């Protein structure tokens, strides 16, 4: 692990913010590192308000999109709400269809089959719209690169509104409206919305024309928060407001489908992390193992008994997904070991029999293990399909752009992407990808980094500090859980390995003159000898609360020890 300590802001800035807020230097430092430098910014950070959301009509083509939907409703046209099969796509379709159907019945939903149609707008989906006399498609979390497909829709007399958040290519589709804040000429102030977030801005714009206020739309924010969490977009600015209120809805009054999922867990109050690891994988499992429409059906269901039935089915999909994920990960690890080449900076593996629904998860697991930009390929029809995952600080989308002459299509983000290519191009692409990455990656990015916010003394760790840090939530990219480093630590003699194979570390740490604080280090069992030695050691950790027999105590969540 590479430990990197963030630069400490100038003491004058810390003093000014500390005085303005009535907080100590440590809290002021953490806020400045997050771009918060004055009282008003701190107020917006700690107390997000719905009125902080931007005017949706600032987004390019928003007025065109609203006018076309209003025209469709006034003329009684059939509308198809179309979205990708992952969490962002299915929550987007649930949000848009549920909103429209509050007042208008002629709405249907469509999620493409991951295996028969693949990602994005498909010709089959357009044919479905044509066959069912649908003259307007609202495409969510996809469409920005669907040049040929949208041209095909236009030839069939079908208009398309694109609501996407992926990076546009050099050419835009001939849609009635293209809503994507990442367009260069789009002046929308916040660029990091997820697909469901763009969909929410569209219903916000529609609602404003129908006399609705933002308070009337809060009930949709459980879907938006789920998509924000699952898509790993920055939880800053507008996303922070949406996630903050969305979490409140999830914990206080979630839609029936999300309630059915939560009821299967033992959680009383969910954090963004819980949404990432508990809710999102189950929604995703529908599209991975069966069909994404199952997720939409769950998220739009209004009858609790029926929703519980849907949730039980999705739980089975998720169990099957976990089993396949573990099996394929082991096979991929063996393949990497058998084909390792000295100095190689990428991991690229392929098996035509691997399940397409889990290759993205496997790519993430391989990236965690070998810390290399990683591609996992499988057979998809007469082509090969892959999921790509990257390491912190390296833009894998740009790397794929450098290999675009080998690809049929690709799309995604800095850290995650998908692609297809012809089988005969596989070896050429594999070599070209290695060359492009090796020429552009900073070698230090191939070593996992722990980014440390601040050094801390153990006597600074108090219940008051923990109460303040909890108000930094929701956490995520752009606002990660604060990470601290403490030096000169010793264990009270309590240290031991715990869990299967004693792979985790349990200890109680102190500095000279400080009270001991319990610590847990997952997968740090191999550090037990360091902790038990007489010589002091340093540790990196975040702060947590441990509840045992009704008693809550502070706990160090250890990240690394040296």
Helical content (DSSP H or I, runs of 4+): 40-55%
Radius of gyration: 25 Å
Low-confidence stretches: none
Strand order of the largest sheet: 3-2-4-5-6
Q: Number of helical segments?
A: 19
Distance between the termini: 10 Å
Largest sheet: 5 strands, parallel
Strand percentage lies at 15-25%
Q: What is the SS-derived class?
A: alpha/beta
Inertia-based shape: globular
Number of strands: 19
Report the mean per-residue pLDDT as an integer. Answer: 94
InterPro entries: DDH_dom, DHH_sf, DHHA1_dom, RecJ, RecJ_OB, SSDNA_exonuclease_RecJ
Organism: Flagellimonas aurea
Family: Belongs to the RecJ family.
Domain DDH: 78-228
Could you please describe the fold and organization of this structure?
The relative contact order is 0.09. Helix 7 links the parallel strand 4 and strand 5. The longest helix is centred in the middle third of the chain and has 35 residues, at 304-338. The chain has helices at residues 11-21, 25-33, 39-46, 62-75, 87-101, 123-131, 147-155, 195-209, 221-231, 237-252, 256-263, 272-290, 293-300, 304-338, 359-370, 396-401, 426-440, 463-470, 528-532; strands at 2-5, 78-83, 107-110, 134-140, 159-163, 177-179, 347-350, 374-380, 383-389, 409-412, 416-422, 449-452, 454-455, 484-491, 496-498, 504-510, 517-521, 537-548, 551-561. Helix 5 (87-101) crosses helix 13 (293-300), helix 9 (221-231) crosses helix 10 and helix 13 (293-300) runs antiparallel to helix 14. Helix content is 41%, strand content 20%. With 562 residues, it is an alpha/beta fold. The mean pLDDT is 94. The strands form four sheets. Strands 3-2-4-5-6 form a five-stranded parallel beta sheet, with helices on both faces. A five-stranded mixed beta sheet has the order 7-8-9-11-10. A five-stranded mixed β-barrel has the order 14-16-17-19-18. It has 19 helices and 19 strands. The N and C termini lie close together (10 Å).
């Amino acid at each position: 692990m590479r430990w990197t300590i963030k630069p400490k802001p100038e003491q004058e800035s810390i003093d000014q913010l500390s005085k303005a807020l009535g907080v100590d230097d440590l809290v002021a430092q953490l806020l400045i590192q997050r771009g918060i430098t004055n009282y008003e910014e701190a107020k917006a950070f700690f107390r997000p308000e719905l009125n902080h959301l931007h005017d949706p009509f600032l987004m390019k083509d928003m007025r065109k999109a609203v006018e076309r939907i209003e025209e469709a409703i006034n003329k009684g046209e059939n509308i198809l709400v179309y979205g990708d099969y992952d969490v962002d796509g299915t929550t987007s379709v649930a949000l848009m269809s549920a909103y429209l159907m509050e007042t208008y019945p002629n709405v249907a939903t469509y999620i493409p089959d991951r295996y028969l149609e693949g990602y994005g707008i498909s010709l089959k989906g357009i044919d479905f719209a044509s066959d069912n006399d649908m003259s307007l498609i609202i495409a969510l979390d996809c469409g920005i690169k669907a040049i040929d497909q949208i041209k095909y829709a236009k030839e069939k007399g079908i208009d398309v509104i694109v609501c996407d958040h992926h990076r546009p290519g050099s050419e835009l589709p001939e849609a009635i409206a293209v809503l994507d804040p990442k367009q260069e000429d789009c002046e929308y102030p916040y660029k990091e919305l997820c697909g469901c977030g763009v969909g929410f801005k569209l219903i916000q714009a529609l609602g404003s024309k129908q006399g609705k206020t933002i308070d009337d739309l809060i009930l949709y924010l459980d879907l938006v928060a789920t998509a924000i969490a699952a898509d790993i977009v920055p939880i800053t600015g507008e996303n922070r407001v949406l996630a903050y209120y969305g979490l409140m809805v999830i914990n206080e009054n979630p839609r029936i489908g999300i309630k059915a999922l939560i009821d299967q867990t033992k959680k009383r109050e969910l954090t963004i992390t819980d949404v990432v690891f508990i809710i999102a994988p189950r929604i995703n499992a529908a599209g991975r193992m069966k069909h994404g429409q199952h997720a939409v059906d769950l998220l739009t269901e209004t009858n609790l008994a029926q929703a519980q039935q849907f949730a039980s089915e999705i739980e089975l999909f998720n169990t099957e997904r976990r089993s396949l994920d573990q099996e394929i990960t082991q096979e991929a690890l063996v393949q990497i070991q058998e084909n390792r080449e000295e100095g190689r900076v990428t991991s690229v593996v392929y098996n035509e029999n691997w399940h397409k629904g889990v290759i993205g998860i496997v790519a993430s697991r391989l990236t965690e293990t070998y810390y290399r930009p990683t591609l996992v390929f499988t057979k998809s029809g007469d082509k090969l399909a892959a999921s790509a995952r990257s390491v912190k600080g390296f833009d894998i989308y740009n790397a794929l752009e450098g290999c675009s002459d080998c690809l049929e299509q690709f799309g995604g983000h800095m850290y995650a992407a998908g692609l297809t290519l012809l089988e005969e191009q596989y070896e050429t692409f594999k070599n070209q990808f290695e060359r492009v990455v090796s020429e552009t990656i900073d070698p230090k990015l191939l070593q996992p980094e722990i980014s440390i916010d601040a050094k801390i003394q153990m006597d600074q760790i108090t219940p008051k500090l923990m109460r303040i840090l909890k108000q930094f939530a929701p956490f995520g990219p752009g606002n990660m859980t604060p990470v601290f480093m403490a030096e000169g630590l010793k264990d009270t003699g309590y240290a031991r390995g715990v869990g299967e194979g004693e792979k985790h570390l349990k200890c109680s740490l102190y500095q000279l003159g400080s009270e001991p604080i319990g610590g847990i280090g997952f997968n740090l069992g191999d550090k037990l000898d360091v902790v038990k030695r007489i010589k002091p050691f340093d540790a990196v950790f975040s702060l947590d609360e441990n509840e045992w027999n009704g008693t809550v105590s502070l706990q160090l969540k250890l990240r690394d020890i040296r």
